[in-house]
Amino acid sequence: MLLHLIRKTIKDYNLISKGESVLIGLSGGADSVCVTHALYTLAAELDIKVYTAHVNHGIRGQEAIRDENFVHHFSDALGIKCFVRHADIPRIALEQGISEETAGRNVRYAFFDELCREHNIDKIVTAHNKNDNAETILMNFIRGSSVSGLCGIPYKRNNIIRPILNASRKDIEQYCKNSKLNYMTDSTNLEDGYTRNRIRHTLIPLIEKNFNPNFINTITDNSLIIDEYNRFVSKYTDDIYSKVVNNAYIDISKLHQYDIIIQREIVRRYLMSVYKTLDGISSVYVRDILFLSDNNSGTAIDLPDNIIIKNEYGKIIAEKKSQHSQKEFNYEIKIGERIKIYEISKKVTVDFVKERRCDGAIYLGVNAADGINIRNRRAGDKFQPFGMNGSKKLKQYFIDEKIPKNERDIIPIIEINGMIAAVGDRIDRNFLFRDCGIRIEFINM
């Protein structure tokens, strides 16, 4: 029965092709023993080669050694090559400031990826089942996950596949019993100190007893419906995202042109671009950012990892808080010189010219002997922008021009003989180019 289910799952989701090799994460528990024995049994039929891999996390002492020995013997009995790695997960978690669960997962997948590269293995097999999927969905729901977190565990992601995801824990234990397979029990799975274990031992049995005896199947069916919905929204958003998000900011006016469902997906993707993952980023942050987009310019919210999200002049901008402390810079440059300004990642050239061209450079009416400095802003700076009457403080000019605060310290100011001749490409009225002068060009490094 279970073998038939695995065959169907592999076919329906195109998990394995003929001639491929698979690496199974074999912990020694019932799930991984089941999927290892099942794929070993189907290997000739599927035309695949099977390997196993095990990580000793250095957490459970003699029990971990017991599991490692079992994995070796089990793999050897089936004639399967087994790879083992030892890792000090508690130390890694402490050094990286992450949970032991996250550290263990990171080490396992890094090990699996390494083995795939070294031995030309095509797929990584994990032993997640239908119960794991239900527990994951409930955990994500309780934590306030986005819609994508309610889709559950995917059958396939990149080269990671889950052939027994549609099998219940009861099905798996029955398979092991019928096939006379021994397996190890991780004692930490029996402890209720972990959220997943409390969901497994307390919440789900309570729901099955008092509300829905078929709850595992119900939540699985619902997750598939949510996944279909999520795929549709994601595909629709593909064509919109680049119109709303550019140069690392969200254009608020364009964001508000779309339905709230699309707005949420755009913000979620934007957070993904900032964090490179959505682990630990709940739907609460998406909601807060959307609320921020409805407020006035100058408002901001704090997010994890020292990230601040700001509403500035119609833009939602994410930045590290440390970006507010831009160092002062001041470079002297002579006509004919080329210099590099590392603080703004620009190369600068200055030449004396007798005509002005439309080439994007800055042209100033300056004598060849005048002293030229390029710096960033200072308190009390003021100049007379061409096209405006009178002088204006630089701070007020930035506000009027809606220059984001994080950009103000990196806008180059051209100073001639102690007077501001240009702020970025905005020229002071006293330094207009006429018959001759200097041409200043800023080029990205």
Outline the structure in words.
This protein has 15 helices and 22 strands. The chain is of the alpha+beta class. The strands form 5 sheets. The protein has a 6-stranded mixed sheet with strand order 3-2-1-4-6-5, sandwiched between helices. The chain has a 5-stranded antiparallel sheet with strand order 7-8-11-10-9. α4 crosses α5 (100-119), α6 packs across α8 (195-210) and α6 (130-143) crosses α9. β13 and β14 (346-353) form a beta hairpin. The protein is elongated and about 95 Å long.
Strand content: 15-25%
Q: Note the total helix count.
A: 15
Structural class: alpha+beta
Strand order of the largest sheet: 3-2-1-4-6-5
Secondary structure blueprint with pairings:
Elements: H1 2-12, E1 21-25, H2 30-46, E2 49-56, H3 62-78, E3 81-86, H4 89-96, H5 100-119, E4 123-125, H6 130-143, E5 156-157, E6 160-161, H7 169-178, H8 195-210, H9 215-238, H10 241-244, E7 245-246, E8 249-251, H11 252-255, H12 260-275, H13 283-293, E9 300-303, E10 307-312, E11 315-320, E12 330-333, E13 338-341, E14 346-353, E15 362-364, E16 372-375, E17 382-383, E18 392-393, H14 394-400, H15 405-408, E19 413-416, E20 419-423, E21 426-427, E22 437-444
